[in-house]
Amino acid sequence: MHVIIVGIGFMGTGLALKLCRQGFDVTAVDQDQHALDALGDAFTGNCVCGVGFDRTVLLNAGIERCDAVVSCMGSDEANIVVAHVARSAFRVPRVIARQHDLSKADTYRRLNIQTISPNAWGIARTAELLTYRTLDDVFEIGSGDVSLVRADIPPLLDGSTVRELTAVGEVQIVSISRDNATFIPTQGTVLADGDIIYAAVATSASRKFKQMLGIAE
Question: Which residues of 22-42 are buried (b: 16+ CB within 10 A; e: fewer)?
Answer without folding.
Answer: eebbbbbbbbeeebbeebeee
